[in-house]
């Protein structure tokens, strides 16, 4: 009984932690009514780093080149591709005079990998305002540049956007991937809202060149092959210089993985950068994940044992109500409402999945970006 007493009172604490996260921290984004800033016409350089992305450039680059914005440049960075990526870039450059090609050769590419290539692209960019995406990403509207750049001010030098994944009908894995993406966005948008920005995603991210050079670029984590987006933001973002953009026309979409194995490998690379986060960010993320894990473990123990089960059930329902509300409002903002119906399953699957990644990364180092 003493053990069950400890479990029960620990469970009460865990539920309180979860309610604070979902109700207050994530609620800062979920219940936030955005005020769309006045669009500006300040020139923008759009950067796309591509390695063996000929097929994706053909499919998605036109949607960027046809953006409804008065003055923008597209910097195409060929990161030592072995396919015809460079030739595709050159073909587009013959048709559009606002394209700048940066060709990184094999003799250079060993140093820093993508971060080195991206640094060369940033140095070659013509304009102060930089908007970054990936070669396999597509803006959902012609107003992507307008919406993202509108958040730049003298004070706001970093803009966090949302990079969604395409929906695949009748695919449970697709729902899991999109739920993980939604939860990650909730986290980085919410923490930015309360003044603790900690990451962004390279599929949809903007910052000023001056901010990049003030932070010395990627030099402090150049030894980590991944993290050109989240590690840079973790180092450079503050409560004073960061803004978020989640208007529906500002999203980008990407093609998601279609096998659990390939997604597992991708997430291993992504998660491996978290050890480089600032201590308070690691502590908050660890607290959130561990409280999620313990919530499920303690819930199952108390309900099976029938120990104070009435009180346990009330606490479980309270936590789910707060969670469903916060996630539901966030999902509506980010066009992911179809995920809500199976939220408990998605959450439990993701907890187990993330624990598996943690164990795998302890055993061996993950493969890096291409």
TrEMBL record:
It comes from the Bacteria. Keywords: Glycosyltransferase, Membrane, Transferase, Transmembrane, Transmembrane helix. The chain crosses the membrane at residues 6-31, 341-363. Residues 45-179 form the Glycosyltransferase 2-like domain. InterPro entries: Glyco_trans_2-like, Nucleotide-diphossugar_trans. Gene3D superfamilies: Spore Coat Polysaccharide Biosynthesis Protein SpsA, Chain A. The keyword Glycosyltransferase applies. One of its GO terms (molecular function) is glycosyltransferase activity. Belongs to the glycosyltransferase 2 family. This is Glycosyltransferase, catalytic subunit of cellulose synthase and poly-beta-1,6-N-acetylglucosamine synthase. The lineage of its organism: Bacteria, Pseudomonadati, Bacteroidota, Flavobacteriia, Flavobacteriales.
């Amino acid at each position: 009984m003493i053990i069950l007493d400890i479990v029960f009172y620990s469970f009460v604490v865990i539920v309180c932690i979860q309610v604070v996260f979902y109700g207050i921290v994530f609620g800062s984004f979920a219940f936030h009514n955005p005020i769309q800033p006045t669009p500006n016409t300040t020139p923008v350089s759009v950067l796309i780093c591509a390695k063996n992305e000929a097929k994706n450039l053909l499919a998605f680059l036109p949607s960027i080149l046809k953006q409804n914005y008065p003055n923008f440049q597209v910097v195409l960075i060929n990161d030592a591709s072995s396919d015809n990526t460079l030739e595709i870039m050159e073909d587009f450059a013959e048709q559009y005079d606002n394209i700048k090609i940066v060709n990184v050769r094999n003799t250079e590419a060993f140093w820093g990998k993508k971060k080195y290539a991206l640094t060369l692209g940033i140095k070659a960019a013509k304009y102060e305002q930089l908007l970054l995406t990936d070669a396999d990403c597509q803006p959902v509207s012609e107003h992507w540049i307008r919406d993202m750049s509108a958040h730049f001010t003298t004070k706001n030098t970093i803009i966090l956007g949302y990079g969604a994944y395409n929906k695949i009908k009748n695919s449970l894995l697709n729902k899991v991937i999109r739920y993980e993406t939604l939860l990650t966005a909730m986290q980085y948008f919410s923490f930015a809202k309360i003044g603790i920005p900690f990451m962004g995603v390279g599929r949809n991210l903007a910052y000023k060149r001056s901010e990049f050079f003030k932070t010395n670029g990627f030099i402090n984590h150049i030894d980590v092959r991944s993290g050109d987006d989240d590690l840079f933001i973790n180092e450079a973002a503050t409560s004073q210089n960061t803004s978020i953009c989640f208007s529906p026309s500002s999203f980008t979409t990407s093609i998601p993985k279609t096998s659990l194995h390939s997604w597992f490998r991708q997430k291993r690379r992504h998660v491996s950068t978290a050890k480089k986060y600032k201590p308070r960010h690691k502590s908050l993320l660890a607290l959130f994940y561990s409280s999620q894990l313990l919530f499920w473990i303690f819930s199952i123990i108390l309900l099976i044992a029938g120990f104070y089960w009435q009180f346990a059930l009330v606490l479980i329902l309270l936590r789910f109500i707060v969670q469903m509300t916060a996630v539901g409002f966030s999902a509506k903002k980010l066009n992911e409402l179809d995920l809500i119906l199976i939220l408990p399953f998605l959450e439990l699957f993701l907890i187990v999945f993330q624990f598996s990644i943690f164990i795998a990364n302890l055993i061996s180092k993950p493969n890096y970006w291409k």
